[in-house]
Amino acid sequence: MKVRVFTADSMQNAIAQAKGALGRDAIILHTRKFRKGGLWGFFSKEEVEVTAAVDTSIATIPPQKAEPYVEEEVAVQSELASMRSLLEKVISKMPQGSEHSSVLDLLMNNDIDIKIAEQIINDLPMDYSHFDVESPELRQLLITQIQTCFKSVEGIKIPEQGRKIVAFFGPTGVGKTTTIAKLAAKFAIQDGYQIALITADTYRISAVEQLKTYSDIMGIPIHVVYAADELKAVLDSNQDKQLILIDTAGRSPHNDEQLDELTKLLHIDDVIEKYLVLSATTKYKDALDIVKKFSICIPHKVIFTKIDETRNIGTIVNLLYQFPLSLSYVTNGQNVPDDIELVDINRLTPLILRDL
Ligand SMILES: Nc1nc2c(ncn2[C@@H]2O[C@H](COP(=O)(O)OP(=O)(O)OP(=O)(O)O)[C@@H](O)[C@H]2O)c(=O)[nH]1
Ligand SMILES: [Mg+2]
User: Fold this and answer.
1) Which of 174, 178, 310, 331 to mutate to test the pocket of ligand 1 (most atoms within 8 A of CB)?
2) For a Cys staple, 335 with which of 225, 243, 255, 339, CB 3.0–4.6 Å?
3) CA 66 → CA 54, 69, 79, distances in Å?
4) Which CATH code, of 3.80.30.20, 3.40.50.300, 3.40.50.1970, 3.40.718.10, is assigned to 153-352?
5) pLDDT for 8-27, tens place per residue?
6) Ligand 1 site, CB within 6 A
């Protein structure tokens, strides 16, 4: 403890002296007023005495030293500098110009992922800044650009000699069985091919019944298989058929055990052409998971169902920009056999940028 006595002409000045010398943490121990000078008290001046102390065991910072403020200022300056650099980075990554951002909005309003929308805009073959975002010219420019991602389209091709075996797989409820019924009707009834149906979906009790109902109506034979080796036997016994369509149970992309089992079934014979069935209504992130997870089955082609239930085909566009998928059919309703067609990009075009 350091103790000092200060005198001044007023209490205020004495305390100011004490704080100046001992720091802001100084404590006043004692104050006293007394008269100084004069003769027997006449003409004397009143003075104030302050006894102050400071605890020297605690590091005190004398107020005249400006370091804390300097340090604080330095910290604020460096914070500001890092914020400035962060802002510059964000701005540099942001699309420049209002045309760019409104075109980006147009694509994103149609469920096109921001990264893919950026890519579409960057790939545009000409300057679009003079177009109004609502102009038919700009829309056509974007649609033509998006159409470039629809590279490969091919449906089921039945060879002149021999046969075609096609298996359909994918998540639950996307429309696999209904799609098979539509295709069976097209190939057996419209085109007159010899067809057989096989269902490996013995998971749900009603699944077999569902396909059997269609096969009965169309007069097409149906076989039920419970295991991979049974599938092999049924394929061997149907050598006379020109087209065999295989239905499988819907599977979750997050169930690895089921996916392994499905992969084994589909790879029982290399000639099986494998179609991944996906609903166009699936959220892009879920569709990404589905494509990634079901890639273990090595799909040859993709079918998009339920086009009629979605406002746009953003999910399809996003997927095609990420993966070199071969497309085949789209389905656009529940009616068997009518609501199916080979992918025709010109017919899908109205769905690409439907929303402003
Ligand atoms: N709106 C619409 N509904 C469809 C379409 N395709 C199938 N559906 C309906 O979707 C529902 C499920 O169809 P399923 O064919 O049973 O689907 P799945 O993939 O075989 O289902 P699981 O075998 O249970 O995995 C049924 O109500 C169908 O009528 C389509 O293109 N549009
Ligand atoms: Mg089914």
Assistant:
1) 178
2) 339
3) 20, 6, 20
4) 3.40.50.300
5) 998 888 888 988 898 888 88
6) 172-178, 201, 207, 250, 305-306, 308-309, 331-334, 339
